[in-house]
């Protein structure tokens, strides 16, 4: 065929870091996202979506180095024109997390929000990483945060943790462990140390690596690079080793936290104890105090969290992290707005489960029933029956191609549609593909098995 | 306070074309998207999501001029480095619709899909338009398409139309009218005309403007610019004037379609008649045959649709459009893959309804109940009661700040949370904020009013 011969074919390749799933995998992803959303809403958190882009200045206003992994947008037209017409417009960058957009949104809509403002957000974020195995450049995050004016009750620190724990526990991913700390404990201790304030972040960064590089290497960093004395370095390591169950916290914390003269440290211990107490209703082992948790980001000021999948050792790192911040939106509005929040790194979690064959099997079709007739004259009956079932909440796919038996049977089997509904001049029959049972059916009363 | 004085505030501005909603508006948007999704699934269409980006080559492979409204991505890092390291990578562009990504996805996953492949897709798309009132640069589209190998039954042309009609009818937007045509009618007629083949698209483009510029202007274009003779131009205008109810179609179509010697034209009339017949179950006035509908895009080859909101005259243009194409994925795979599909321009529809105050009132919180105690010692009881209710599917927000009566009352009222649940040493009481009724309640049995 000359038409086909003429055709230029461009064979598309997968784009590194931009994951896409087959329908049956997407069905599982959608189901997980639905479950997380339902959990967030069950606690009364409202949803927002922010634009996919921020002005570069907004990101820069956070005061940190502008992240180098940011994707900026260019209009192809502007490039083609090569004119300066667009230069006056602010440059737009795809958001790389949901925290900066949330802070900006709160500042911008301050007068139209009710505080404490409790929101969840489940969008894609983008990071312009170099292509590399396992590195994602587009992924879903599922965030919840509470933000309030001037003061935010500590009870929210426990609430957001409980919500995320429950959200993860509702997925089929085995045991989940929430590891909680409070930065005030370490920061309070560091206040007492003979150490430049500038070096505090370096100490936190060293502790952050505790699990990865081990006690000896951390000690080396503290003493050789940060110039701590031996006693102080030992105490820091003692902190990092502190892992207590919620039950043991009050009786054993003093073994790890020696100094009790610093009020910030004391506040931290008290806050951590209260948060653990409020999480006591979660299952045994669901929550531990772990003073090695510090989180890399500067803005956390109190409670910090990480979450480990105990039954998925392949997933190193935290699946869900966050903490309390004193003043998140301060770059955008002259108000004091403390908050606390957690983010589930959804796509990374999902993809690890997928790669290790730990996802449940998903359906290729949401249909409960495949409807079929061999008699074209009955297509009106087919349409009406399908409508009756749909109105009753049963998803019905109609198989339009009139072909021999095996074809539509194979189609239903391929798509894992559980029932075939036959319309014929003799009436309606339903076949259960799992059991092979077949019988007459009335569209007004028939129900699929649960 | 010196800290505050030091603080640099960057006041963020809205970004033109990137809409964002307050929580109560987003709640309505989410509800609408849920309804559309449920409708799509009720017909057995599976969901897919594609990456937000495509390689520029993939877009270019479609053979049309690369769209100038495309946003291309640049890594900020690459710009900073100013090195050529990234040059080897394909350039990435944000997708500007869901049709190109769908075609590419089908080609790429061909061996893992079951055909006919029926999918829906509800994602954001981006167009790098110049900032201008009403122009959106980021918006949701809700698409359904069916694609098959070699042949696709005409029944799907009616099915996708019915689904989109029902999806729109399930929203609170008044009467919806689906306008259907079949391009074969016009193309068949044009085959008989004494006209260069190259000019056929120009004729379609002229008809497309029929409603906007009127009969006289269209005649002028046909005769002066396209060089048609008077008789042919009159027939074209006669086509464009043809608007028939499904009921009248067979009896009256011959008044508009004079020539019956062309087989393509005859096929078109027959197909259009069958599609209308299959849509006869929809309410009176829901569907009309309208031969002025041609759709601008080249790839449509048969049925074409547009949809009008009859009760929202502010919304000019079509809220939901699509058609049948002979070979959509032909640029990416050497198979013959005909398809039919429709796309709802969701955000545009939503925003017009919003701007005209025609949205239903949305809730600021998904909570059914605000739970509250004045006695901090009872916070364990509060937590347990809230958990009991949540496990029963009731969304519960806990008000943690212990403040005087008016505060939490005002909070519930602001967020339109319908019930306040009081926990005290005397037991549990629930207040219905709409009626003012208050009474004792058992968390194991209590239900909110529907």
Tell me what you see in this structure:
2 copies of one chain form a homodimer. The first copy, chain A, has 450 residues and is α+β, with helices and mostly antiparallel strands. The first copy, chain A, contains 15 helices and 17 strands. The first copy, chain A, has a 9-stranded mixed sheet. In chain A, strand 16 and strand 17 form a beta hairpin. Chain A is elongated. At the A-B interface, helix 2, strand 1, strand 2, helix 3 and strand 3 of A face helix 2, strand 1, strand 2, helix 3 and strand 3 of B.
Average pLDDT number of chain A: 90
**Main β sheet profile of chain A:** 9 strands, mixed
Calculate Rg of chain A over CA atoms.
28 Å
Q: Largest interface, with Cβ-Cβ < 8 Å?
A: A-B, 107 and 107 residues
Amino- and carboxy-terminal Cα gap of chain A: 51 Å
Could you write a compact summary of the structure shown?
In chain A, strand 13, helix 14 and strand 14 (396-398) form a beta-alpha-beta unit.
List key phrases describing it:
homodimer; 450 residues; alpha+beta; 9-stranded mixed sheet; 5-stranded mixed sheet; 15 helices; 17 strands; 37% helix; disordered N terminus
Summarize the SSE layout with pairings.
Two copies of one chain form a homodimer.
Chain A: H1 2-6, H2 23-42, E1 46-47, E2 53-55, H3 56-60, E3 71-75, H4 76-81, E4 92-94, H5 99-108, E5 117-126, E6 138-147, H6 155-169, E7 176-182, H7 183-192, H8 200-208, H9 210-225, H10 230-241, E8 243-245, H11 249-256, H12 263-278, E9 287-290, E10 300-309, E11 320-325, E12 339-344, H13 346-355, E13 369-373, H14 379-391, E14 396-398, H15 405-415, E15 419-424, E16 427-432, E17 438-440
Parallel strand pairs in A: 1-5, 7-9, 13-14, 13-15
Antiparallel strand pairs in A: 2-4, 5-6, 6-12, 7-10, 8-9, 10-11, 11-12, 15-16, 16-17
Helix pairs in contact in A: 2-6, 6-12, 7-12, 8-9, 9-10
């Amino acid at each position: 065929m000359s038409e086909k011969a003429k055709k230029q074919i461009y064979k598309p390749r997968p784009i590194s870091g931009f994951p896409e799933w087959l329908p049956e995998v997407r069905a599982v992803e959608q189901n997980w996202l639905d479950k997380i959303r339902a959990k967030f809403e069950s606690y009364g958190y409202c949803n927002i979506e922010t634009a996919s882009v921020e002005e570069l200045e907004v990101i820069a206003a956070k005061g940190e180095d502008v992240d180098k992994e940011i994707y900026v947008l260019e209009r192809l037209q502007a490039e083609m024109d090569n004119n300066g017409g667009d230069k006056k417009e602010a440059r737009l960058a795809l958001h790389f997390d949901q925290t900066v957009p949330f802070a900006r949104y709160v500042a911008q809509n301050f007068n139209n929000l009710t505080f404490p403002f409790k929101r969840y957000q489940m969008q894609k974020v983008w990071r312009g990483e170099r292509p590399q195995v396992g590195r994602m450049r587009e992924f879903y995050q599922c965030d919840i945060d509470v933000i309030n004016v001037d003061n935010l009750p500590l009870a929210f620190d426990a609430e957001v943790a409980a919500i995320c724990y429950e959200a993860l526990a509702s997925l089929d991913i085995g045991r989940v462990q929430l590891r909680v700390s409070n930065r005030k404990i370490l920061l309070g201790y560091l206040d007492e140390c003979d150490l430049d304030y500038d070096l505090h972040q370096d100490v936190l960064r060293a502790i952050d690596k505790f699990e990865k590089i081990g006690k000896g290497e951390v000690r080396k960093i503290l003493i050789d690079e940060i110039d701590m004395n031996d006693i102080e370095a030992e105490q820091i390591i003692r902190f990092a080793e502190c892992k207590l169950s919620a039950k043991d916290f009050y009786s054993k914390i003093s073994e790890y936290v020696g100094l009790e003269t610093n009020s910030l440290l004391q506040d931290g211990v008290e806050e951590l104890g209260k948060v653990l107490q409020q999480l006591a209703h979660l299952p045994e082992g669901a929550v531990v105090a772990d003073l090695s948790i510090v989180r890399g980001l500067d803005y956390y000021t109190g409670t910090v969290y990480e979450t480990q999948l105990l039954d998925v050792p392949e997933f190193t790192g935290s699946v869900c992290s966050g903490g309390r911040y004193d003043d998140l939106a301060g770059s955008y509005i002259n108000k004091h707005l403390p908050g606390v929040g957690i983010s589930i790194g959804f796509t990374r979690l999902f993809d690890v489960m997928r790669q290790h064959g730990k996802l449940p099997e998903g359906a290729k079709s949401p249909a409960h029933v495949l409807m079929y007739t061999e008699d074209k004259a009955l297509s009106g009956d087919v349409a009406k029956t399908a409508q009756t079932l749909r109105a009753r909440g049963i998803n019905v796919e109609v198989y339009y191609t009139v072909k021999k038996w095996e074809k539509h049977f194979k189609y239903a089997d391929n798509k894992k549609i559980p029932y075939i509904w036959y319309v014929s001049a003799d009436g309606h029959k339903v076949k259960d593909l799992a059991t092979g049972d077949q019988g007459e059916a009335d569209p007004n009363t028939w129900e699929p098995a649960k």
